[in-house]
Amino acid sequence: MNRESYNRVLWASRRGMLELDLVLGPFARECYPGLSAPDQQLYRQLLQCEDQELFGWFLGKDHPEDPELNSIVEQVRAFSRR
Fold first, then answer.
1. What angle do CA 18, 15, 50 make, to 5 degrees?
2. DSSP class of residue 47?
3. Which helix (H) or strand (E) holds 35?
4. What is the pLDDT of residue 31?
5. What is the spatial distance between Cα 39 and Cα 18, in angstroms, rounded to a whole number?
6. N or C: which end of the chain has fewer CB within 10 A?
7. Percentage of the chain modeled with pLDDT above 70
8. How many C-alpha atoms does 1 have within 13 Å on its Cβ side?
């Protein structure tokens, strides 16, 4: 992973909702570099989703229909519960 692509992920992890910033920012800084390449791709895919969807997923009120996307959502949720 090069520095430029990592910086793009960090920037994309900054959202319009403070609640999402408080979840995604720390995850991107602390966990993203250690994720497998497929999970890094899933995280980047996750960042393409709408804030309202993400908010519902991270609260556990809903979940993505895509099971692979759901797996990265669960990793983020597990991280944020620590």
1. 115
2. T
3. none
4. 97
5. 24
6. C
7. 100
8. 18
* Helix, strand counts (H, E) of the chain: 5, 0
Is residue 20 within 8 Å of 58, Cβ to Cβ?
yes
Residues in contact with 28: Cβ distance below 8 Å, sequence separation at least 6, in sequence order: 9, 10, 13, 43
Looking at residue 63, its amino acid is H
pTM over 0.85: yes
Token look-up 């999970």 returns 39
Unique residue bearing structure tokens 């992920």: 9
Nearest to 40 by CA among 78, 59, 68: 68
Which of 16, 9, 62, 60 has its CA nearest to residue 39?
9
Half-sphere exposure (Cβ direction) of 59: Cα atoms closer than 13 Å = 10
For domain 3-81, the question of CATH label 1.10.150.250 is answered with: yes
